[in-house]
Amino acid sequence: MKFVFPLITLFLIVGCIDNPSNTEEPETPTENTIQKCENGLIAEKYECKNFDLLTNISKDDLGDDRVIYDMWGWTDTQNNSDYVLLALSSKVLFIEVSDPLEPKIIGELPESQLDIDFTIKTRSDATNRAVKTYYDHLFVVSDGQPHGMQVFDLTNLRDYSGEYLTFTEDALYEGAYNARNIEISEESGFAYLSGVIQGEDCSKGGLHIVNINEPKSPSYAGCYDADFPSGNSSISPEYTYNSNCFNYDGPDPDYQNRELCFLGKGNAFVIVDVTEKTSITLVDYIQQWNSYSTINDGAFSPSLQYYFLNP
Known about the structure:
Layout: E1 37-38, E2 41-42, E3 46-47, E4 68-76, E5 81-88, E6 91-96, E7 104-110, E8 129-134, E9 137-142, E10 149-153, E11 165-166, E12 171-173, E13 181-185, E14 190-194, E15 207-211, E16 219-224, E17 242-248, E18 258-265, E19 268-273, E20 281-286, E21 297-300, E22 307-310
């Protein structure tokens, strides 16, 4: 398999505050003013080109918990409502944006109450939270605490009638106590949890694989925790920060119709064949960044010939 690895660096700055609590309910913004892109700037300071700023939800609108870790989107195909799924340090916030000029913060899914012995092994106790969706269900993982993988039926959002709602998960997968990140292959119906360092199975920090074809009945499916090639993580040689997994149909005929995962293991970029969940094989790897680099994310070109890394 031959890949070319042009590198790009992207910067995303989000605001945060120290020691957030979650006692104050978020409030829907009461007034929004469209801010036009004029002379290449929005509000005379943010660079722009061919777009305007329709809505701004400030940190104050989020309530007491204002640390943003992740976000995803979901469209209810029954009523065409659009939602932002905003992952904070202690909850997931649901924001309806069907009318982008009048977003509505309609409710939240608090963190799980998984009751197990848990010893923090990461470099901090930050409760990093990551989210993905699959067939009208939300999947939530968190790091630095006993959490498991929450499964939430997003059609519950249809219950909103004007009063702020606090939901509970519809299912809780307890095989992985923590996870740094989650990737879902929609073609195969498997979730790939990375950075799992405590759990019932597969807890060395590699890929912890969960079958979610029945979303409310997730089950353990396999593991990739090889210590070679290892990255530069101080947690373990197997530690994986993120993954990108899907059924490959790119230009390399040797791997067409195979399910592949592209992994960021610190400063190592690793490709594995996960078609057989109990017999995962190494395809290739590259490790040429300095010891301080960490691959945080990546994406393919439309042709699947090039993979862009964010080290």
